[in-house]
Specification:
The protein has about 280 residues and is α/β, with parallel strands linked by helices. The protein has one domain: 3-Layer(aba) Sandwich (Rossmann fold). About 30% of the residues lie in helices and about 25% in strands. The strands form 3 sheets. It has a 6-stranded mixed β-sheet, with helices on both faces. A 4-stranded antiparallel β-sheet has the order 2-1-4-5, with helices on one face. Strands 11-12 form a two-stranded antiparallel ribbon. A hairpin with an 8-residue loop joins strand 11 and strand 12. The longest helix is centred in the middle third of the chain and has 16 residues. The two termini are about 25 Å apart.
């Protein structure tokens, strides 16, 4: 599997995240280089969303550390954390009368003092975010009246307006039809290709992962099971170990991403227990 990237912008070490007695993340380490896109995969309940929220500083870690740009997120205040990491969660309810531009303006709060009015820098940042999510023409529309794909791009514009160093996306294609999924993934791909943004995202569709991710971290029951490029990681054996389904993996054409076909009929009735060889108890 691939070695950790050099000069990591995001560096997580031996992370443990728990909710009461339940450990959602157990001893996971992760390095993300500037400009890299990392996808988190695994079955439901494997700790993907918890890991993403811990990287953003939204939930405390019970053990280990998270650093972005060398700064320990646990020691940073809310505004500093928001400037370091922009998190787009799965569900994002908006006030009924909020327009697209007004929503994007919320992303500028980490850059302003309390009660300070937005200036030219804020307007430029909002314009930039709306332009790169292709929502500038819809800036006066009400968010509640947008289609699913448009609403997701509006929320993405809000996170981009924060100008974070790393973008964290939790299942950004959830609840979208195929066309809107493609639209959102195209925006994410452009942010990486054109703007060189650093992205960590959770996706369930392995073909989407193969298309957008430089590297993949596979989680199972809160433990890092494997990591590597999509071509390295997406083998029938690894997919079966993660999801309990048979898979056919075809190599990419002309250097493109591999293609995965899942045979859900071959899903096992019972999964054997899978644990990371270096799994540790909570410190």
């Amino acid at each position: 599997m691939s070695a950790a990237p050099p000069a990591a912008l995001v560096s997580a070490r031996e992370m443990y995240v728990g909710y009461g007695r339940k450990q959602a993340v157990r001893g996971v380490s992760l390095d993300v280089a500037a400009g890299e896109t990392i996808a988190l995969i695994g079955p439901n309940g494997s700790g993907k969303s918890s890991l993403l929220r811990a990287l953003a500083g939204r939930v405390p870690v019970d053990g280990g550390s998270v650093r972005i740009g060398g700064r320990d997120i646990a020691r940073a205040g809310p505004r500093e954390r928001a400037r370091a990491a922009g998190l787009l969660e799965q569900r994002n309810p908006a006030p009924a009368d909020l327009t697209v531009r007004e929503l994007a303006r919320y992303g500028r709060h980490p850059h302003r003092r309390w009660f300070e009015r937005g200036g030219e820098a804020d307007r430029d940042a909002v314009d930039w975010a709306l332009a790169h999510t292709e929502m500038l023409a819809d800036e006066d529309r009400v968010v509640a009246e947008l289609s699913g794909g448009e609403a997701q791009r509006a929320w993405l514009a809000m996170v981009l307006a924060q100008r974070p160093r790393v973008l964290l996306l939790d299942e950004p294609t959830t609840y979208l039809d195929i066309a809107h999924q493609a639209d959102v993934l195209e925006v994410v791909g452009e942010l990486r290709r054109v703007l060189g943004m650093t992205v960590v995202l959770v996706l369930h569709d392995l073909n989407h992962v193969a298309a957008v991710a430089d590297r993949v971290l596979a989680l199972y029951e809160g433990v890092a099971l494997a990591t590597g490029t999509p071509a390295e990681l997406f083998t029938p054996e690894t997919i079966h170990a993660l999801y309990g389904v048979a898979a056919e993996v075809a190599p990419g054409v002309d250097g493109g991403p591999p293609r995965i076909h899942l045979d859900h009929r071959a899903r096992r009735d019972q999964r054997t227990q899978r644990t990371h060889p270096d799994q540790k108890e909570r410190p």
